[in-house]
Specification:
Elements: E1 2-7, H1 15-22, E2 28-31, E3 40-44, E4 47-51, E5 64-67, E6 72-73, H2 75-85, H3 92-95, E7 96-99, E8 103-104, H4 107-120, H5 132-140, H6 155-172, H7 181-195, E9 199-201, H8 203-212, E10 217-220, H9 244-251, E11 258-266, E12 269-271, H10 284-292, E13 305-307, E14 309-310, H11 311-321, E15 325-329, E16 339-347, E17 353-354, E18 367-374, H12 391-404, E19 408-412, E20 420-422
Parallel strand pairs: 1-10, 1-11, 2-5, 2-10, 5-7, 6-8, 7-9, 11-15, 14-16, 15-19
Antiparallel strand pairs: 3-4, 12-13, 16-17, 16-18, 19-20
Helix pairs in contact: 2-7, 4-5, 4-6
The protein binds guanosine-5'-diphosphate, 6-O-phosphoryl inosine monophosphate and magnesium ion.
C-alpha cells in the first residue's frame, strides 16, 4: 500500500517531522510533487536539518528514498543539499533514487520566476523564487528538460534550445540576466555532472516493484492543500497537485494502491506569501503566535502570517483528499494563550453564513465566526498519551474530532522527533 502524508493548510504544517517519525514503518519514502520551494525541518539528537528536495526518510537507514516524477528538481540545490548531509555519514548512493521523469529547474526558470513576480507588482504571488512555476509551465508546454535527459549526448543542445526561448521572454520583461547567468550556468552544469553519480531510475518501476513485493510506501507531500493548483486559493497557489491524487500521478501508482491518507494540520494556521487568509491575526496576538511558534519560513526566512484554526478550510481539505487520519501539530504553541479560538464558519458580506470554502475567496471579505475554548496553560513535554493531557486540551481534541469526523492519531508538542503524544501508549 501507498500511504500519503500531506499538509491540509498553506504548507509548513510539520510534514518533514512526521515523515521522519513514521519512516521506520516504511521501506520506501517518496516525494511526489513540488521542489525546492519546500522546506521540511527535522530535529533529532540535537541536530536541526532542513530538507528541500530530498525526502524526509533520508535519516532512517532502512528506507529507500525516491524523488518522484512529479517533482521539479534543481540540480544546484540538490548538490548543496547532498553536501549539507555529508556530516551524517548516510549511504546516499544506496538509499537515494531520482526519477528520470522528474523535471529539471534551469537557472533561467529561477530568473523567469523573478521576472514574472516583478511584472505582477502588488499582485505578486509571493513565490519562493525557486523557479517552480516556470518549470511546471515548460513541463505542461511539453518543452521541459527531465532528469533522464542529462544522460543524453544532446543534453547541451536541448538546454540551449530552451534557454534561448527563455531569454526572449526575459528580454521582453527587460530583466537583466547577462550579469548573473554565466556564473549560474557554470554551477548548473557542475551540479548536473554531480547528479549523475546518483541512481537515476524509472521510479515508477521502483515503487510498483516494492508494492508487488509487499513493501510499504510513504508518499511525502510538499506545500499544502490550500496551495494546490486546482483547489487552492487560486491564483495564490503553487503550480503542482499537492493533494492525495497528486501522489498517483507524481509516482505512477494506481488510485486503488492508496491506503491511509494522513492529513497534517497545525493547531492554528499560517501562510507565507500573498493571498486570502480569513482567520489571519494582524494584531499583537498574531505576533505572539509567530514568536512562540518560530513562524519564519524554512526556505526563505520570511515571517509567516499567523491566525486561528479555520474549520471550513480544514473540512474542505479533508474532503478533497479523502483523509483517513489526522495529525495535529504545534499544539505546544498554544500553551501561552488564555483563550483559544476556532473558526467554525464564515459570515459573507450579505450577512449569510457558510461552512464552505468560497470560490471567490480572493475577492470576498469573509468574516470568521469563532468558537472559544479555555486554554490549558500547561507545558506538554512530559505527556505521552491522550489520557494524560490537561482537561482543556482533551476538550479541544474531542471537539475537533467530532467536527471533522475523523480520529486525531497523535499530536505534536515540539520540534523534536520524540515530542509526540499518542492516542494510546506506544510499546
Ligand atoms: P513542513 O514544511 O510541513 O515540513 O514544515 P516546516 O519544517 O516548514 O515548518 C514546521 C516548523 O515547526 C519547523 O521549524 C519544525 O521544526 C517545527 N515543528 C514541527 N512540529 C512542531 C511542534 O509540534 N511544535 C513546535 N513548537 N514546533 C514544531
Ligand atoms: P512546504 O513543503 C509554505 C508558497 C509561497 C507562495 C506560493 C507559490 O515547506 O510546506 P512557489 O514558489 O511554489 O511558486 O510559491 O506558495 N509556498 C509555500 N508556503 N510552505 C511551502 O512548502 C511552500 N511552497 C510554496 O510562499 O505563496
Ligand atoms: Mg516548510
Amino acid at each position: 500500500m501507498v500511504d500519503v502524508l500531506l499538509g491540509l493548510q498553506w504548507g509548513d504544517e510539520g510534514k518533514g517531522k512526521i515523515v521522519d517519525v513514521l519512516a521506520p514503518q516504511y521501506q520506501v519514502v517518496a516525494r511526489f510533487q513540488g521542489g525546492p520551494n519546500a522546506g521540511h525541518t527535522l530535529e533529532f539528537d540535537g541536530f536541526k536539518h532542513v530538507l528541500h528536495q530530498i525526502p524526509s526518510g533520508i535519516f532512517r537507514a532502512e528506507a529507500k528514498n525516491i524523488i518522484g516524477n512529479g517533482v521539479v528538481l534543481d540540480p544546484i540545490v540538490f548538490k548543496r543539499e547532498i553536501d549539507g548531509l555529508a556530516k551524517y555519514n548516510l549511504d546516499l548512493g544506496q538509499n537515494l533514487f531520482i526519477s528520470k521523469k522528474a523535471s529539471i529547474i534551469l537557472p533561467t526558470h529561477r530568473l523567469l520566476d523573478a521576472a514574472y513576480e516583478q511584472a505582477k507588482g502588488a499582485a505578486k504571488i509571493g513565490s519562493t523564487l525557486r523557479g517552480i512555476g516556470p518549470t511546471y509551465q515548460d513541463k505542461v508546454a511539453r518543452q521541459g528538460l527531465r532528469v533522464g535527459d542529462v544522460l543524453s549526448p544532446n543534453f547541451r543542445q536541448k538546454y540551449t534550445t530552451l534557454v534561448t526561448a527563455h531569454k526572449v521572454t526575459l528580454d521582453h520583461h527587460g530583466f537583466d540576466y547577462a550579469s548573473t547567468l554565466p556564473q549560474l550556468e557554470e554551477e548548473f552544469f557542475a551540479a548536473v555532472d554531480f547528479m549523475k553519480q546518483f541512481r537515476l531510475v524509472d521510479s515508477e518501476y521502483e515503487v510498483n516493484n516494492a508494492l508487488k513485493a509487499g513493501q510499504k510506501v510513504l508518499a511525502e507531500g510538499a506545500q499544502g492543500s490550500l496551495l494546490d493548483i486546482d483547489f487552492g486559493s487560486y491564483p495564490f497557489v503553487t503550480s503542482s497537485s499537492t493533494m492525495a491524487a497528486g501522489a498517483c500521478t507524481g509516482l505512477g501508482v494506481a488510485p486503488r494502491q492508496i491506503g491511509e491518507v494522513y492529513g497534517i494540520f497545525k493547531a492554528y494556521c499560517t501562510r507565507v506569501g500573498s493571498g486570502p487568509f480569513p482567520t489571519e491575526l494582524l494584531d499583537e496576538e498574531g505576533e505572539r503566535m509567530r514568536q512562540e511558534g518560530r513562524e519564519f519560513g524554512s526556505t526563505t526566512g520570511r515571517p509567516r502570517r499567523c491566525g486561528w484554526l479555520d474549520l471550513p478550510a480544514l473540512k474542505y481539505a479533508i474532503m478533497i483528499n479523502g483523509v483517513t487520519q489526522l495529525i495535529m501539530m504545534k499544539v505546544d504553541v498554544l500553551n501561552i494563550f488564555e483563550t483559544i479560538k476556532v473558526c467554525t464558519h464564515y459570515q459573507l458580506p450579505d450577512g449569510s453564513t457558510t461552512e464552505q470554502f468560497p470560490y471567490d475567496l480572493c475577492d470576498t471579505d469573509v468574516t470568521p465566526v469563532y468558537k472559544e475554548f479555555k486554554g490549558w496553560h500547561t507545558a506538554l513535554d512530559n505527556f505521552r498519551t491522550f489520557d494524560e493531557v490537561p482537561a482543556e486540551l482533551a476538550a479541544y481534541i474531542d471537539f475537533l474530532e467530532a467536527e471533522l469526523n475523523l480520529p486525531i492519531s497523535f499530536i505534536s508538542t515540539g520540534p523534536d522527533r520524540q515530542a509526540v503524544i499518542h492516542r494510546e501508549a506506544v510499546v
